[in-house]
Fold this sequence. Notes:
The protein is α+β, with helices and mostly antiparallel strands. The chain has 4 helices and 5 strands; from the N terminus they run βααβββαβα.
Amino acid sequence: MIRPATEADIPRLIGYADNFLSYHPITSQFPRDLGAVETTLRNLIASEDGVILVNDHGAIGGQISRMWCAPDVSVALELFWWAESGGLSLMRAFKAWANEKGADMIQVAMIIGRKDVSTIYDRMGFTPVELSFIRAA
């Protein structure tokens, strides 16, 4: 069953974040601030324009934002998506939440090389539009 996260879910969500951040190509390179993660989670739970949806095996979180170049266009930004199983149902629930919020678009991200995630996005009708590059300053 998918439901909105509550304060009681925060320790489990921090665990998901810590695990993900430990192998992410960028965040694994520097110390993580799990206090900042907790603050972000609490803010999303409390926000009218944010959401964290959970099931027994994962979570997805995001927020509604406006396009910087077209402020009348609202975008549901997926900020994180972790799932040991049931990931597709979480993404579908996020899409439904975005529709309920009246979002014009949904923006998702993935780590390069994740064919499983790319396949899900393709099947859900997402189109790749840009690729980010990063390096040390």
